[in-house]
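Friendly challenge for the regulars: who can give me the structure tokens for this chain first? No prize, just bragging rights.
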Amino acid sequence: MHCPFCQHVDTRVIDSRVSDDGATIRRRRECAACGERFSTLETIELKLPVIVKGDGRREPFDARKLRLGFDRALHKRPVSEEQVEAAVRAVVHQLRMTAEREVASRRVGEFVMAELRKLDHVGYVRFASVYRDFQDVDDFREELDRLERELPPGEAQLPLLDEGNRGQSHISPKKKDR
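First reply, four minutes later:
Bragging rights claimed.
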């Protein structure tokens, strides 16, 4: 492996650690020429299916795009990085398990929605609003109603709507100055 600092071809491994899930190995390396240290990640490379877009275009699967979709949906939500990484890995695993050479982008979206639904309902609805192209408030309301109907009793997440204010704004009016 070339040194990222001086481009020398001789680097040696100082330390190796396997990740908790066993999917990656982190290696600490040192350059024989300049002495700088750096880390590398080693992962298994499996061929993932080509993604077929709605307009028929085909493009290679891009895990960065997948992660970006999760990040946008979960922006400022109480979901840890570890949970997001696990969800991304779950979607990639589902893609591998299809054993197909091509997968429709709609199917990938369904995999993402299933994972978001487990993680955070607000993130799920955010993603669904773009994915399903919501046109108005009624589309949001229908999705919220469907989500609430399908939730098992005692679900650990916060309620989607305050039951007393269902369909009303959650912004309280300003109090008059005394």
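Residues 50-151 form one domain. The chain has two domains: 11-43, 50-151. Your move, everyone else.
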